[in-house]
Amino acid sequence: MPTSASWIPLRWPSAWVDPALLGLLEGTPFNCLAMEWNAALAPVAAKARAAGFSLVAMGNEAARSAGAGAGLALPPESLLLAADSVWPGIASVSDGGEPSGPTANPWIDSNGWLLRLAKVRMPEKTVWLMFSPPGAPQVVLLESYLRAIADTGTWGGRWVVSLDAGLLGGMARGDAKALESWKAIAAAVGFFEQRRAWNALEPLGVVGVVSDFTGPNESAGEEILNLLGRRSLAYRILEASAAATASLDGFKALIYVDEGAPAPPLRRRLLAFANQGGLLVVGAGWNRPEGNPIGVDHPRMDVRRLGNGRLAVSKASPPDPFMIARDVHMLLGRTYDVARFFNLSAFLSHCTASTDRTRELVQIVSFAIRFPNDLATAWVPGKYASARLWSLGSTSPSPIEMVPENGGTSLLLPPVPVYAGIELFGRKS
């Protein structure tokens, strides 16, 4: 049987007590069934176990205990079950439209930030996201399932795939449309499983978020990560406990808005970063701000010159995470963008690279609710020997036309209905 690190989970419906329904999993990547146990599932469990599936007890404590008593495994310590994950999609749009341009709009629900934080804090664990599709009366389209898979796979997690009642009913009846949707869902899961090596690439980003992400700092720190992602402002995460000695190479801005003053070693490190030319954004709890005011009447920040850099102290206590994400982007400007995107709306991006930068990856997850008939462009600040494009579920990549532009490279893309993965090779100095 597969080890827990390679489990590819499907939440088995409690109402599917006919073992013959296991036939729907033939030819799919799923090798693990997450079950909320009841005695009627015993024949299914027996047949699944004989076929080589791993069986994991899920649900509340009583259900897990019953499942363990029936021989199902409990989730091991190597798994992190993220029950606070969300169904990815557009939460709301204030004016009923979807603005186009080089940045995403701020009304997207995604689990990308959660997966990135989990990887930093618990790199040894495999993260399972435990969200379910919305219930009736909402109809869950195939594109919504594919988006949920892409949102999870792009940031290196595994979704415990959960299907809505309408799709489950159609599959059990042998409905052709439902089976076609199921085939596409399985193919999308398989696409990311076949490219798990992408998860070893390191995030690119010139903005660092420094926090302990606990207690009074948990909500604000996490929301800043969420909002930076919505702005397509590439960031990296630094836990406060390690930031005093971590490498700050490549950072142009650091955000530290935890309550209270930082420990002296961390404060000295952050100040040294600003003195050497960086932008340091801190909360109102930063006592006795160093440097000299630069004379700019910023509505939310006391911006000060500090050595070769700047110190920006929030005037609000506690600071508004939305405004922190917005203001750091405005203060930093677009000069250091890791990537820019045009003719895309309602999307998120994730840019990663190998340590030596010989291989880079730009992933785009589109949340737009419209017919994807527009060509798009991604711009990256480098020149490359070659590039190729992966679409969700594809078995082979397509070439991408590269155009030198503005000191970097514009990548001309076809419409992006749900997902695009751009591999770049041979970065030229």
Structural description of this entry:
- The chain is an alpha/beta fold and 429 residues long.
- It is 25% helix and 27% strand.
- Helix 5 packs across helix 6 and helix 7 packs across helix 10.
- It starts with 8 loop residues before the first strand and ends with a strand.
- About 3% of the residues have low confidence.
Topology (SSEs and partners):
Elements lengths: L8 E3 L20 E4 L6 H9 L3 E4 L3 H9 L9 E4 L6 E2 L17 E2 L2 H10 L4 E4 L12 H13 L3 E2 L5 H9 L2 H18 L8 E2 L3 E5 L6 H13 L4 E5 H4 L9 E4 L7 H12 L3 E4 L9 E2 L7 E6 L2 E6 L6 H12 L7 E3 L4 E7 L5 E8 L9 E5 L2 E9 L6 E2 L1 E5 L2 E6 L5 E10 L1
Parallel strand pairs: 1-2, 2-3, 4-7, 7-8, 10-11, 10-12, 12-13, 13-16
Antiparallel strand pairs: 5-6, 9-18, 14-15, 15-16, 17-20, 18-19, 19-25, 20-24, 21-22, 21-25, 23-24
Helix pairs in contact: 3-7, 4-6, 5-6, 7-10
Shape: globular
Q: What's the helical proportion of residues?
A: 25-40%
Query: What distance lies between the first and last C-alpha atoms, to the nearest angstrom?
Result: 47 Å
Q: Summarize the biggest pleated sheet.
A: 7 strands, mixed
Count the beta strands.
25
Taking pLDDT < 50 over at least 5 consecutive residues as the criterion, the unreliable ranges are 93-104
Structural class: alpha/beta
Kindly report the spatial arrangement of strands forming the biggest sheet.
11-10-12-13-16-15-14
What share of residues are in beta strands?
25-35%
The radius of gyration is: 23 Å
Alpha plus pi helix count: 10
What count of domains describes the coordinates? 3
Give the mean pLDDT: 93
